[in-house]
Write a structure and sequence with these properties.
- The protein is of the alpha+beta class.
- It has one domain.
- The protein contains 1 helix and 4 strands; from the N terminus they run H-E-E-E-E.
- A 4-stranded antiparallel β-sheet has the order 1-2-3-4, covered by helices on one side.
- The chain starts with a helix and ends with a strand.
- This is DUF6888 domain-containing protein.
- It holds the Pfam family DUF6888.
- InterPro entries: DUF6888 (IPR054181).
Length: about 60
Amino acid sequence: MQPTNDQTQGLYRLCYRLTNVIYPGWPYKNVELVRLDQRTGNLYLLAEDDLDFEIKPTGGYEP
């Protein structure tokens, strides 16, 4: 199973936001893990120890 094009674009946007300080007061975060769940088709992203995101096949993500 491969991520959808929308998921790939959502992952790129999310990684850009996490690893670049684009908002004042939002510190840089390391992206630790990206994994595709074969059962649901969702991408999971773990950033540092306190942030995790789920990227749906439509490209939308939520913490």
